[in-house]
């Protein structure tokens, strides 16, 4: 239960905490003072002041005046009742007598109660019995006369100032003890009030300052380039939420730096790949052109061969530059896709009928395994055809030598993700497990020597990734069962009439 209360306090907003703290610093002292006053009031109102006379004489200027005021009020109230009770009036008379005031009470002109002392003075006062109501309270005397006009009751009282208890002698040890007790109670109340205010203020300041210090330490770490830390916070108030947002910013900065480093590494690899792939055909062009100029190619047939090789290298460079340009446009989002909904089974049937014979001549027959039900996707037919072509060209490049290979194109649906799964699996050399996530990187080649430039630019699968992502799909590389590489493409399924 205490843990839940602490947790609820932690989840309270700072604004509410401050409001509660300020209210408690007001309410708590007021409650302490109220309880002390109620204790004194109980002693004076309920207790017998005659038995507790030392309490009354501790603060005569305040307590005595309060007792007299209240007793006068209640005594007058009793006299106004239809049938006043002498016993009930006597309760108030005892309080006034304890202050040194003498009384007589009359009923229809007859004395029914008197204090037994100073009768002569009371008799003189009683001579003014025709007076309905008198209250005199000056520096040297007190006189109270009240005759009820309804029931024949009357009260006459007189006393001297100061209002000290009757027959009070020297101050007793009990009075000194009471004074000490009251002093200790008041001092204890002040200490409790001070401690409570200090505790509430410190609790509030700690809950705020601790999180601010954590924020400052985190900001200094980020300033120094250190993002490998966790910002600790326990409270769920405004500062706790600020710490959470700050920590999210730190994680985002860290992720951005990691991404930037990856992009920087890819940029370096791209530049290295471009320089390598351009240097190789340029070296060949220089060699063949020098052979012609230096007279090495003396016969027309050899010269023609050298010129064809120069032309072939120039075409290789042209294809490389064009592929790089296409990749760059896709990467920067400058390629506009003209998408429309097609039935994917029909699309692959048309593709295999059109391109199948050509790939079969290149020892890569295509076996298509369609789905039993129609599946509709939104694609750009030209760009998606480029995706399939790049995957098939990659399979040809890594086909097993002197073996009749084939490629399987299989379609299936994922009802959980509402996507169509397109698996294009070859049975060639495949890729190492550690390189499966790298084959979509620009200029990645399974051939680590990077010498066969003419057989591929190393950009084809990177273009595949760019186009598939532009179609709101995903692509990944898997190992084919029995050896080879499978490229899996997932595209969202569309309704037939969508466009």
Characterization of this structure:
By secondary structure, this protein is an alpha+beta fold. 54% of the residues lie in helices and 15% in strands. It contains 12 helices and 12 strands. The chain has a 5-stranded antiparallel β-sheet with strand order 2-1-5-4-3, sandwiched between helices. Strands 7-9-10-12-11 form a 5-stranded mixed β-sheet. β9 and β10 form a beta hairpin. The longest helix has 56 residues.
Radius of gyration: 52 Å
The CATH topology annotation of the largest domain reads as: Heat Shock Protein 90
Assembly type: single chain
Structural class by sheet pairing and helices = alpha+beta
Q: What is the average per-residue confidence, as pLDDT, rounded to a whole number?
A: 76
Quickly count the domains.
Answer: 3
H/E element string? HHHHHEEHEEEHHHEHEEHEEHEE
> What's the total helix number?
12
From the spread of the alpha carbons, the general shape counts as: rod-shaped
The count of strands amounts to: 12
Main sheet characteristics: 5 strands, antiparallel
In whole angstroms, the N-to-C terminal distance is 59 Å
* Fourth CATH level, the homologous superfamily of the largest domain: Histidine kinase-like ATPase, C-terminal domain
CATH architecture of the largest domain: 2-Layer Sandwich
What is the class of the largest domain in the CATH system? Alpha Beta
Strand order of the largest sheet: 2-1-5-4-3
